[in-house]
């Protein structure tokens, strides 16, 4: 994550993304296409709002006619376009940053809906409140869906070398090399790494496939020769005075400049660049976990867990019968886990192993494929035949919904830790106990079976440090395809 991306897309100027060798120019500017689709989406949302008859009991067909309302919305389309642009929804970099983008979409659609209400007031049109509410909800959902399609489209195009920005990395220290490796691996981000500039490294290829192009002093000429290329400065590799000189030189040449940040585990929406005298300071917004936010999370947890448990009860009952017929022992498996603020509780799952699984664990320690305190085997002999199916489909986790209803767990949160794991934690990891553990989390949607202990802790700490209701909704949305496609479940 670059500082420019994290704090403001106005840090640095320069040419738009350019094609790598062999790329064909785009026939339609992506921003123009998005703008046109947004305008159509707003009109569709207006039509939807007139098709929904009095959803909130406010007389949807009183006053303004259907046609008048749609025409009113169409007359405000330039305002909608300006609001969307003001929320930076046409900045290609924000597409794909789901949480930040959804927040901007909600802000934009709310302001646009209020603009329609204000326009109705000035032209003296009687407008039911339900129309505005439905318009807001419909535009929010439709634009969010539209941007998800755009994100996937742009990612696919970038992976094929389209809409790609050529970039040179200033600094070939560990941070710079890690950045280059990440950009090469995650092609969907839209960067093609040309090479490094560095004053201390002599290796002609600091990263396989990424050559050393010259020194930092050569950066201006190197980038000017590669028209449209930009530079990312690895902040820890170059002194601030050198970075300032480099930035001035490159900006004068019309080169886009970005500065990477070591604040990679802090969500970008929490970072704000503010001037402090002559120094630009990155202010980290505090995480708001208490008050109405905690209440809203709890209400959402109970409501969705109750509905899911009710809907899944036939599946749960069938699984219980299968367990009983497959192997001896109880249907449910209970295990002590550590909850919020260190309070122990019993997590409930469907039993997927033989009864003496814990006793046999010591015999299998040498075959452990996980690191840290985790235990993981590709083909664990303790797992029953039915248990394999339950684990693959995540049906074994359904009883945890009762833990959610009881308040011991949340739908989304850090992985609930075992007592012996917490005993080995350092002070940093104890921050995981500040929030309620969850059935799903960032570890679940990022390949839970393939994750190392370090990955688990990093993802859990990221969640704790950056929690928001939008993040919870995004994780839940990503959990559905993960479960259905059986990704990472073993």
Automatic annotation (TrEMBL):
Keywords, alphabetical: Membrane, Transferase, Transmembrane, Transmembrane helix
Keyword Transmembrane among UniProt keywords: yes
Keyword check for Transferase: yes
InterPro entries linked to this entry: Bact_transf, EPS_sugar_tfrase
GO molecular function, one term: phosphotransferase activity, for other substituted phosphate groups
Domain Bacterial sugar transferase: 297-484
Family annotation (Pfam families): Bac_transf, CoA_binding_3
Signal sequence extent: none
Residues that span the membrane, as ranges: 33-53, 69-85, 105-123, 129-150, 299-323
Subcellular location: Membrane
Lipid bilayer topology: Multi-pass membrane protein
Gene3D superfamilies: NAD(P)-binding Rossmann-like Domain (3.40.50.720)
GO cellular component: membrane
Protein origin, superkingdom: Bacteria
Classification via NCBIfam families: EPS_sugtrans
Family under the similarity heading: Belongs to the bacterial sugar transferase family.
Name by which UniProt lists this protein: Sugar transferase
Biological source species: Iamia majanohamensis
